[in-house]
Each structure stands twice: as structure tokens, then as C-alpha cells.
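User: hey, got a sec? need Haloacid dehalogenase-like hydrolase folded
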Amino acid sequence: MSTKVVVYDLDGVITTRDTFTTFTIEQLCRRPLRLVPAIPLAVRRFLSRDEEFRRRTGVRIARIALRGLSEEDFTVRVENFGRRVGAGRTWIRRSAVARIRHQKAQDATIVIATATERRLAAALLNRAGVPYDLLSASELSATPTGIDVTDHRLGERKAGALRELGIDLAGAEFVTDSFSDLPTARAAATVVLIGASRRTGQKFRDAGVATRSATVVP
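Assistant: Yep! Here you go:
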């Protein structure tokens, strides 16, 4: 492996929006009656600043949206969505992609670490032409009632999954937009913010994590 490892978050960094949330909303709209239990949960999630509550609530909403789907149907839907998003002009930060391509050309090892679903992320990255060496993403699997989240790679779990894959975070650059990535940021050698709000930057500073911002455009 290259001596330079760069770990990129996906949503908000390479994309301009949250991919799996948008996919989930689309699935709910296919079955409007499922919006009845989902909307109150979504409102509570939006208003909460508790990251663990937001994570659990997001999983519950996904279960409602994906109830009854087979593994095959889910794969078709999520991969089609990923390819559509990857081709979308308003979805992809082209300058972030250019940054990744430049680093890859300089022999950096590019790792994508995301809480979004693995098949969605792979389809999106391939369609958008994003080069990478390793993808660490959340896993969803079939259950008797439908598709469920079996490995949500968010927060501490994102950092843990990277270590399990052999990534030396202590020597890596980490690129993110989200304070939910604090565990990975704390472990990384350097932290670069792309697409992050000023408030997020301040929260990292308050947590004792030094960051720098990369100049990118949508």
C-alpha cells in the first residue's frame, strides 16, 4: 500500500446530499401509507441533536421503508438509485472528485468510508468515476420481514470498521463534513473539511480536533 492513505466520507463530501436518506424517502413515497408512521419519527430525528437517537431513528425509518422487499428487489432498486445519483450534475461535487483523482494519480491509497449502504455507494462511485482502493460502507441484509440494517458504519463503528480493514488511521488523512465522524477524526493524522458548515468546524475545534478546509465547489 502507498505510504499516503486518504479516507473520504461520502455524503456531503463527494455528494452534496445524504444518499441513503433520499433513497429511503423515495421508497416511502412508493407506499404512501408508510409515511404515516415514518413522518413523526423523521420530525423527531430532525429536531434531535443526540447522535445516537438520530442513528436509531434513521434505522427505524429504513425498516419501515424497506419492509417486505426481497434481497433481489432491494439490490436492483439501490443500485439503480446509486447510478442515477452518480450521474446527477447537482449531486456530485466535481472538484472533490478531481481532488481524489489527483491524489490517486500521486499514488495515494483512497478509502471511502460511509454510513450509506454498500451497493448504493459502489454504484454511485463507479458511475461518477471516483477511483478508490477500498470501500467501507453500511451493510443491509434480508430478514423475514424485509431488508434491515445489519452493520451501520456510523460514529465509533465507522472508525472500528476501518481498523478491522487494516487502515492505519494514525497515519491517514481524513476528509469529512460531519461531526458524527468525530471518532475517526480523533484517530486520524490530519482532518480536512469539505462541505462542512461553520458550526461543524467549530464543534471539531471545541472537541480539540484541528482541521483545515479544502476549497471545493458543488
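Quick note: The domain at 5-213 is CATH 3.40.50.1000 (Rossmann fold). Let me know if you need anything else on Haloacid dehalogenase-like hydrolase.
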